[in-house]
Design a protein that fits this description.
The chain contains four helices and five strands, in the order ααβββαββα. With 188 residues, the protein is of the alpha+beta class.
Length: 188
């Protein structure tokens, strides 16, 4: 556990060093548009790429058996296009599992909750049909953070597509920043 925390601290320091390096490059290049586009695009791509990576990794997390405590279907109304609102349904599940001799509990259904959202209530009902109280269920546990466990690992095809598109958009924005820098340098 201490090693995992140390890894998190080291990753944070590495990220801080990268940001500092980028800021030095930005100061050297002296282009505000360049810096905004490159840093913003790179941050966007890094965020979405990280989400894709975590979603994929969760498929390989260690598995254990858990027990369902409660299951219900919740709904949320969100703004759609224009002035329309759309209602989405999603499962809310509480479960317990044992790991390393310790009883744990979680209400985290999926790494990305929108992977199990649907505008069709029957789809969500089918998803949780067997997840009734006291039912046994496979639980996927993050090996680096054993208190993080999910019933549905990975990302839905829609969420994967979303994060791929955001990653590509971030890369394109960063590339546009480099283009702005090149035009600025060429104009000098």
């Amino acid at each position: 556990m201490i090693r995992d925390r140390l890894d998190d601290v080291l990753r944070g320091l590495l990220l801080l060093a990268c940001v500092a390096g980028i800021m030095i490059v930005v100061m050297l290049l002296d282009s505000v548009a360049f810096s905004i586009l490159v840093i913003g695009g790179a941050a966007l791509a890094a965020f979405a790429g990280h989400r894709l990576s975590r979603g994929r990794a969760s498929l390989d997390w260690p598995r254990t058996t858990g027990t369902i405590s409660t299951t219900r279907i919740a709904e949320r109304s969100v703004a759609d296009s224009g002035h329309m609102r759309r209602t989405y349904f999603y499962p809310e599940i509480e479960f317990t599992y044992a790991l390393d001799g310790r009883e744990r509990s979680s209400a985290r259904v999926a790494l990305d909750p929108k992977s199990v959202w649907s505008p069709d209530r029957r789809t969500v009902e089918a998803l949780v049909a067997d997840l009734v109280p006291d039912a046994r269920v496979t639980v996927y546990v993050d090996p680096r953070r054993p208190d993080l466990a999910v019933v549905f690992p990975g990302l839905s095809a829609q969420r994967r597509s979303h994060y791929v598109a955001v990653t590509l958009a971030g890369l394109l924005i960063a590339a546009a920043g480099v283009g702005v820098w090149r035009l600025t340098v060429a104009a000098l």
